[in-house]
Amino acid sequence: MPENASSAARAIWLLLVLLTPVGLTAGENPVEVKRCNGSAVLCDRRYDQVAYATTHNSMSNRHDHWLAPNQNYGITQQLNAGIRALMLDVHSFMGHPYLAHTSVLFGRKPLVAGLGEVRTFLENQPFEIVTIILENYVLPEVLDQAFTEAGLEPYLYAHQRGQPFPTLREMVLSGKRLVVFTDQGGGTYPWLHPVWDFCFDTPWKAKNPGELKNQAGRGNPANPLLIVNHFLMNPLPSVRLASQVNCNPFLMNRIFTCAQEMRRMPNFINVDFYDIGDLFEVVDTVNGLPLAERRTSAKQPQARSLSPFRLR
After folding, report:
1. Which has the closest alpha carbon to 196: 165, 218, 163?
2. Other CB atoms within 10 A of residue 81 CB
3. Fewer CB within a 10 Å sphere, N or C end of the chain?
4. pTM score, two decimals?
C-alpha cells in the first residue's frame, strides 16, 4: 500500500503506462517549449495521459449574476486560475447561440463572447492546452460560425479516431491547442469531435457524497478519455454541497479509488465551485508533478496531509 499521495500518484502513473500503448515521439525541435500546462513534466505526455482541472457548467457563475450558479467566477478567471477544461451548454436565443444552462432565464452570454475569452487566454498563454466539452442545442454550422467569429479557428485541433493523441509539446509546436468535444453535431467538422466517441464518464446524478459512483456512465469504457463527474445537486448546486466533496482527503480518495476500480487515469476531474477545496492539488498529484510544483489550497491546510491509497 502506498504510504502517501506521492507514492499513489507514481502507482497510478505506472498503471497507466502498462495499460496504454506507446505514444508519439516528440518533435524535432522541442527546445523552445519548456513547460506545458504549467509543468515541464507534462510536455512529453500525450493529451490522453494528462489530468485536467475541469469546471461543470463553466459559464454559470455568481460573479456574472447567474441564478443557481455552478461556479463563483467566470471563464477568464477560471482559466487564469488553472482550469483547463470547460463544460459549456449552448442554446439558441432569438436566433443566436448563447451560453445558457437549461434556460436563458437563469443567465446567458453570447457564445462568441464566451469563446472570445478562451481565445484571449490562448493568445496570452502560448504553452497551454484547453479543452471545451459542449452540451449543444444548436446546429453544428452555428457552432462553426461562432468559433470562427471568436478567432479560434487557428487553434482548433482535429483528431482522427483510433490514432494516438499527440503530446502536449507537439500540440504547442503545432499551435493546435484547443480540443472541442460535443454531444450533438460531432463529426460535421474535423475539429468538432463526438464526445462519446472519445470519452466516457462516471454517473453525474448525485445528491450526497455516497451517491458518487466509480462506474461507467455515458460512452464506451474502451474510449481513451475518462470524465470523472464529482459534484452534487440537491436539487441545485451550492457552495455547501461543493464543500462536502471538493476538499481532501475526500476528493483525493475518490479520484484515486476511481482510477483503481476503473483501471484508468482520470482525465477530466469535473467539479462545481472549483475555487473551494483542493482540485488543483489533486490534479497535480494525479499528474505526478514534483512536490515543489504542486498547487495547494491556503484555505484548506488539511489537504497537505493525505490518506493512503490502495492501487491494484
Report:
1. 218
2. 15
3. C
4. 0.87
DSSP secondary-structure letter at 18? Answer: H
- Torsion sign over Cα 97, 102, 103, 107: negative
pLDDT at 299 over 90: no
What whole-number distance in Å separates Cα of residue 41 and Cα of residue 205? 34
Q: Is the pLDDT confidence value at 35 over 80?
A: yes
203, three cell numbers = 454517473
How far is residue 241's CA from residue 256's CA, in Å, rounded to a whole number?
21
Do you know the residue count of the chain?
312
Grid cell, residue 303, equals 489537504
- The residues, ordered by sequence, that sit 6+ positions from 308 with a Cβ below 8 Å of its Cβ are 1, 2, 3, 4, 8
Cβ atoms of 118 and 86 closer than 8 Å: yes
Count Cα atoms within 13 angstroms, Cβ side, for 283: 30
For residues 247-271, one letter each, b for 16 or more C-beta atoms within 10 angstroms of the residue's C-beta and e for the rest, the string is bbbbbbbbbbebbbebebbbbbbbb
